[in-house]
Amino acid sequence: xxxxxxxxxxxxxxxxxxxxxxxxxxxxxxxxxxxxxxxxxxxxxxxxxxxxxxxxxxxxxxxxxxxxxxxxxxxxxxxxxxxxxxxxxxxxxxxxxxxxxxxxxxxxxxxxxxxxxxxxxxxxxxxxxxxxxxxxxxxxxxxxxxxxxxxxxxxxxxxxxxxxxxxxxxxxxxxxxxxxxxxxxxxxxxxxxxxxxxxxxxxxxxxxxxxxxxxxxxxxxxxxxxxxxxxxxxxxxxxxxxxxxxxxxxxxxxxxxxxxxxxxxxxxxxxxxxxxxxxxxxxxxxxxxxxxxxxxxxxxxxxxxxxxxxxxxxxxxxxxxxxxxxxxxxxxxxxxxxxxxxxxxxxxxxxxxxxxxxxxxxxxxxxxxxxxxxxxxxxxxxxxxxxxxxxxxxxxxxxxxxxxxxxxxxxxxxxxxxxxxxxxxxxxxxxxxxxxxxxxxxxxxxxxxxxxxxxxxxxxxxxxxxxxxxxxxxxxxxxxxxxxxxxxxxxxxxxxxxxxxxxxxxxxxxxxxxxxxxxxxxxxxxxxxxxxxxxxxxxxxxxxxxxxxxxxxxxxxxxxxxxxxxxxxxxxxxxxxxxxxxxxxxxxxxxxxxxxxxxxxxxxxxxxxxxxxxxxxxxxxxxxxxxxxxxxxxxxxxxxx
Length: 641
Known about the structure:
The protein has 10 helices and 37 strands. It is α+β, with helices and mostly antiparallel strands. Among the domains are: 335-466, Neutral Protease, domain 2 (Orthogonal Bundle); 471-562, Sandwich (Immunoglobulin-like), CATH 2.60.40; 571-640, Immunoglobulin-like. A hairpin with a 7-residue loop joins strand 31 and strand 32 (581-584). It is elongated and about 100 Å long.
């Protein structure tokens, strides 16, 4: 699932910068506005008989009135025996729902509905490979687990009802196999509602008919689907359609079901879906459900949920749109095989969101995306990406670990392996027939990265996936002479005792005298703690660790010796000025204070600027500008025109 509804950090951006797209919103869980409400859901353990059968086809026929929290349904399931002597079929179904009857071709089989399990005893045991079918008739008010899996609400005075089942909520509103070991190969969803209302769901809409006061909509889906990704939303939707294409040039629809009162506001925002679709097609391979559709359905939540082929959206900002789209590859096409490996869904989709910031919106927000995620991850000293307690929904959907640290695990692999190997590994993983349209494990991903890299990565994953914490680096350097020799020493300590040493290469950047003069070095793990000599093509002005945020890390301190006269200057422009002065300090220096004095030495302006800009309200004339940074002080004359 994607984004959690929690406090947001809005980053201001003038409309003149990106008028073609909505401003991105960086949330405190990397835009994950989905899971604070999951924390209220019930705990769940997979039953012992989930592997007895393979669900081949399910036909869901539901009666829904969005003005009432109630469901009546018939679910027909075709299944195959996966073991010898399968005498019963077990469904997950909450006790709050009432089973009216069960129909089998030979009559009415005996069933027991208790403890949130529905056991149906077959008239004759099935041998391995044999198939059978049955229909379950049921009704009731679905269980309310906090925000709920089956929600009745309103928009603009109009009733709306939607479902959201991740991770353990499908059983709260329909009889299913709430398992991460079996996808239903094919589904039909047929929903009958009062005539004013329309239904959004998985797959393609094959018919929409009205019969007097009733409307019947039939959605057909012919791809394997996990139970938690099945969804419906019902209200007075209006819709519009765009068209995307895959590498062959074949087009497929991108369908948007939105509240009528939001149509004009939402429509311009969804255009980015096509841009992101082209990007992800090129990076990961073609959209995996292109024989049907992709789409959005608006619902009354603050975030979104990646239901297969139709994401449910509470808002339509850039980050939410691209994250939910990324889940169609990571989570839907290839689904995690255990909630302990939630990073296969959320870490990958979160990193795909970062890639969208890198490649779209002129790349403007990519540095901020990286720095904000690192800041979030290192805000606490411990925590692993691996989920050690899958009974805790709060642990599964931990934004700092499953989303941000999971995403950054991928970013660090990209740093280690290079773009060509990194993206080759992801494409091989997605196209692996053992996981395509099925389930994957963490080990499967690890194997594909190792195959692409041509070496073992077990130590990396032991440290960054299973281990906790992060490295804390210190840098000492000596550029005390004017020649091209630089001495550096990078040392490491760690934030958590589970990993005494992270053996990942460390990026180091050295700056020269000109504005564009810099050179990058890669300090290998075996050189940490040693004093090493580097050759640089210029006189050194400054050295910094990992300025592009390739690593999860903190920097404990940087101590440098610079040759006299080699310090980079603070740049001030324009001069003369009208209303604004831009101050450009050297890389790594922070502006501590800006003051302006008149010609009589009187202080007329003093501020700690939030950005590298000041707007002093001054009369025309000459002034003295004094700038104090973390490393130096500058005094210069300025002229107000």
